[in-house]
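Predict the 3D structure for this chain.
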Amino acid sequence: MEKTRTLAEIEKEIAETKAALMDVHGTETEVYARIVGYYRAVKHWNKGKRDEYDLRKMFTIEDSKLYEISSADTSSENSVLASTTSTTTVEETESVTYEMFTRKTCPNCPPVKAFIENLDMPGRAIDVDTEDGLAEAAKKGVFASPTVIFYNEAGVETARCHNVEELEVVCKKITITA
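Done. Predicted structure below.
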């Protein structure tokens, strides 16, 4: 035989559960992240590094699936074009661009520059060693060189790559259109 509860009993139970949930106290979680070549608890970082950490963007597979990647160059897998709407056609490729942030002393920049030179799309290189380049990098949240940002025809950022391997992964997902 099932016991029936009154509305007052149910409301009392809900109130007790809400009170118990309000009194839940966990323990502090210590977050470790890489800083200047080694891992250290974030709570022990200096203010500048902590602010930089707070501005970092985390890459997630789910967010990357929001963009459809396609190419107008059927003869090469080295063309990267991104679109948030439909597959990019040959006529639309002129509005897809990239920005490549580099430094003169960066050991990882030359291979990325060489890879980007093979792309058949308009873009520009920005030297972050200059005052204007550094200001633009800061405005766009670029904290490392090399960084290549791809934009669709609407000017919306669709991808960020930091090395040739990441560029190759993006290129392998290209849908070829004729």
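Residues 112 and 163 are 6 Å apart (CA to CA).
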